[in-house]
Specification:
Low-confidence stretches: none
CATH superfamily of the largest domain: P-loop containing nucleotide triphosphate hydrolases
Number of strands: 14
Helix content: 25-40%
CATH class of the largest domain: Alpha Beta
Length: 292
C-alpha cells in the first residue's frame, strides 16, 4: 500500500523550545492515522507542518513522494479545532460559499447526505448545536474532494451522543477510501477510528503501531476493579493502584486472583474486569502529571 504522506526527520524549534525533535512516520493510502500526546508534546506543531501551515526548521514532509507544493492545500481538507463560519448565513449558504473557493468541488447534495445536514440546511449557523456545527465543518473540510483529510480534535466539547454520531460520519468517510490524519485526546476515539497511531511526547514519537498491537506489546495482564475495603484483604504483596474508593489490581491470572479474593472472604458484588486500554498505555508512557 503506497504512502500518501511521508514525514522524514521533522524538526521544529523556537528560541526556547524544540517543539518537534526528529519525527518520522508514513501515512498509508486509505487509512486513518492518529497522533496522540499530552499538551505541549509537539503533536499540534507536527500536524500544522503536515497541513502545510507551518514551515519545518529541518526535515521533510512529502506528499505522494514530492515536497509540498503550491497546490497542496487544494488537495487536502482540514477541520480545525475552531473555524469561523460566515455570520448570518445558513448551513446551505456556508457550504456554497466555501465550495466556491475551490476549482475542484464535491457535489453539495453528496456532502449534505454524507454529513447528515438535511435537518438544518436553512438554519442560521449561529443557532446550530455543537454536534451540528462539527458536522457542517466536516462537510466544509470535504468540499474540495481532498485526498487527505486532517481532523484536529474534532469532537472536543461534544456530548457523548454527538461524539458517537461524529465517529459514525468519520467511518463513513473512511469507507469511501479517504486518508485521514486525526489528533484527539479521546483514547476511545483513537482506538475505534485509527488503523495506526503514534504517541508523541517531548517532541519525539515514543510508540507507534496499530492500537491492538501496541496494547499486546506493552501489556500481558487485565485489570480488576473493586472497592478498597475488599482489595485490602489481599495483604500478601499484590500490587494495586488506588483511585478514590476503588482499587485497580493488574494481573495476568484473572481466575487465580479471583480465587484468592474469595479465599480471604472478599465480596465480588462490585467487581469489574476489563482489558487494558489505550488510556492505560497513554498514561504508562507519558505519565500522570498535569500538563499545561
Amino acid at each position: 500500500m503506497p504512502a500518501v504522506l511521508e514525514v522524514r526527520d521533522l524538526v521544529k524549534h523556537y528560541p526556547r523550545v524544540r517543539a518537534v525533535d526528529g519525527v518520522s512516520f508514513e501515512v498509508q493510502e486509505g487509512t486513518c492515522f492518529g497522533l496522540l500526546g499530552p499538551n505541549g508534546a509537539g503533536k499540534s506543531t507536527t500536524i500544522e507542518m503536515l497541513e502545510g501551515l507551518l514551515k519545518p526548521t529541518s526535515g521533510q514532509v512529502l506528499f505522494r513522494g514530492a515536497a509540498l507544493g503550491g497546490h497542496y492545500r487544494e488537495r487536502v481538507g482540514i477541520q480545525f479545532q475552531n473555524t469561523a463560519l460566515q455570520e448570518h448565513l445558513t448551513t446551505r449558504e456556508n457550504l456554497r460559499f466555501f465550495s466556491a473557493l475551490y476549482p475542484k468541488r464535491r457535489p453539495l447534495d453528496e456532502l449534505i447526505a454524507l454529513c447528515r445536514l438535511e435537518e438544518f440546511l436553512d438554519r442560521d449557523t449561529s443557532k446550530l448545536s455543537g454536534g451540528q456545527r462539527q458536522r457542517l465543518l466536516l462537510a466544509i473540510a470535504l468540499v474540495n474532494e481532498p485526498e487527505v483529510l486532517f481532523l484536529d480534535e474534532p469532537t472536543t466539547g461534544l456530548d457523548p451522543q454527538a461524539r458517537r454520531n461524529f465517529w459514525d460520519l468519520v467511518q463513513g468517510v473512511k469507507a469511501q477510501g479517504k486518508t485521514i490524519v486525526l489528533t484527539t485526546h479521546y483514547m476511545e476515539e483513537a482506538y475505534l477510528l485509527c488503523d495506526e497511531i503514534a504517541i508523541v511526547d517531548h517532541g519525539k514519537i515514543i510508540a507507534r503501531g496499530s492500537p491492538a498491537a501496541l496494547l499486546a506489546e506493552h501489556f500481558d495482564d487485565s485489570v480488576l476493579e473493586l472497592p478498597v475495603a475488599e482489595a485490602s484483604r489481599l495483604n500478601d504483596g499484590v500490587t494495586y493502584k488506588q483511585k478514590g474508593d476503588v482499587v485497580e489490581i493488574h494481573t495476568p491470572d484473572i481466575n487465580g486472583t479471583i480465587g484468592r479474593l474469595l479465599a480471604v472472604g472478599a465480596s465480588l458484588a462490585h467487581l469489574r474486569i476489563r482489558s487494558r486500554t489505550l488510556e492505560d498505555l497513554f498514561l504508562e508512557l507519558t505519565g500522570r502529571e498535569l500538563r499545561t
